[in-house]
Amino acid sequence: MEFGLVVFLQNCVIWLYLRCGFVEIARQVFDCMPVEEKNLISWNSTISGYVQSKDGLNVAWELFEKMPARDLVSCNTMIDRCVIPLTKMPGTIGLRSVVAVKLNSTLEISAHL
Questions:
Q1: Which residues contact 17 (CB under 8 A, 6 or more apart)?
Q2: What distance lies between CA 35 and its chain's CA centroid?
């Protein structure tokens, strides 16, 4: 079986388990993948699953920190979970934009290194 097809199928299995609410089983599939095979889809899917679970923000943050490369999906997933609740508080209008600009500029800087 081709390398790309195996990664595609593993990502599909992760996504399927997450959609069914089985975050821990999805994590087992993710953890069994060799590091060199994990791509942005693998990382982003797993992080998104933890972000959407009840108490998964800490685990999502740990995975986010371990990611070898991040993209806008990675950053937006974390922004939405961390900042959206804060924007509902009085006096925080525009907070999400400020955080997004900061993360985007970090992405641009790291992309040029």
A1: 23, 25, 26, 29, 49
A2: 16
Phi-psi region of 21 (alpha: psi -120 to 50; beta: other; left: phi over 0): left
Instruction: Report DSSP state, residue 36.
Output: G
CA distance 60 to 53: 10
Residue 73 and residue 46 in contact, taking contact as beta carbons nearer than 8 Å:
no
Q: How many residues does the chain have?
A: 113
Residue pair 22/35 in contact (Cβ under 8 Å)? The answer is no
pTM for the whole structure:
0.70
What pLDDT was estimated at residue 13?
Answer: 96
For CA atoms 63, 79, 46, 11, give the dihedral sign: negative
